[in-house]
Amino acid sequence: MLAFGIMSLTLESELSYFTEIAMLAESCGMEVFRFIPSHINPHSLHVKGKKFDSKRKAWVSAEFPIPSILYDRCFYGEDEHSKQCLPIVSWLKNQKDITFLGYGLPNKLELYHVLKNTPLSPYLPPTQHVQDAKTVIKELAQKKKVILKPIGGAHGYGIYSLKKNDKTFLVKTEKQKQMVSRIFPNEAKLHKWLESLITKRQYLIQPYLELVTNELEPFDIRMLLQKDEFGNWGELGRGIRVGNSGGILSNLSAGGTCKPFSEWISKLPKTKAEYITEELDYILSELPHLLENAFLPLFELGVDIGIAQNGSIWILDLNSKPGRKVLLQTRPDLKDTLHMRPLLYGKYLSQLEHLERKNTYEKTLSH
Ligand SMILES: Nc1ncnc2c1ncn2[C@@H]1O[C@H](COP(=O)(O)OP(=O)(O)O)[C@@H](O)[C@H]1O
Ligand SMILES: [Mg+2]
Fold first, then answer.
1. What is the structure's pLDDT at 185?
2. Are residues 182 and 254 in the same domain?
3. How far does residue 149's CA lie from ligand 1's centre (Å)?
4. Nearest CA owner, ligand 1 atom 18
């Protein structure tokens, strides 16, 4: 049976998702294991983790060789454990006999620099690396409102909106689903705060886009693309995430809610709805191959699109380890497909690997 391994940073993370996948594995002739990268024994190359027992429909503790197909669902932070696991995962990615479903994407800034030179550049909010506090103050003087995001950030963490009034500056962020705002009475005070913010982590700056519904709630469109059992990209579905009224984030982890895409688009005037649909289809048709040409192979891709009040369409964020909540809540009919896809694509990859090895073997024989 083909061994399918899932990696995460804790054994609790996404447990119900992994269990749903594991329940379907037997029907695909596969066995599912999950483990934490730091639990690999560097000498034996075995790992202590959990194996899914299909008869008992339960996870059992086990020690096993590293599975040859790996689904990486590690979400790194800035903690010690993340720092320990990251190089192990990089090492695994370089092993010839191990295949990852997807090899991940670089940080937001690198993504921007690559996509800026493609036909998708008109959809990218102008983005700059924040080298120093002056960059931010200069942008604020011009644009009046900007957003700062950690270049390696995710889940809406550490995002600030900044607004310049006559003399004062208003800085807002969302912490634990609460809006926190602070007024800086002058530029010098803001400068000092910015300097300390950017020494902690690297930030990028973008103009603040009014990505709000008519009720002034921040919202975005989240689409999920995945490869199927033949290795072809396709869209699984799309949904709308709505944040708190007056808030800055529409991330679900920041307290957002979701609604079906069809419900949202059906309320728009026909020509606007058609225009948006065409634009979204175009973006989705271009993105996967542009990313895979520039970086490494992927299995899935979460695409966040913002639509500004003036109708302009923006690619906000690309996630190589996307969540499934928006889709599961708005399209419960997709549940089985969603859970089957990683297995089917893993199987496809293993057959491909097998073929490639066979070809290499045959080539060596003929020489
Ligand atoms: N330039 C922007 N203007 C206005 N709102 C933005 C902008 N960029 C991001 N946002 C809001 O912040 C949220 C999180 O930003 P995103 O780039 O997706 O970061 P993360 O990786 O933390 O999810 C978005 O879903 C959107 O609601
Ligand atoms: Mg995001």
1. 97
2. no
3. 8
4. 317
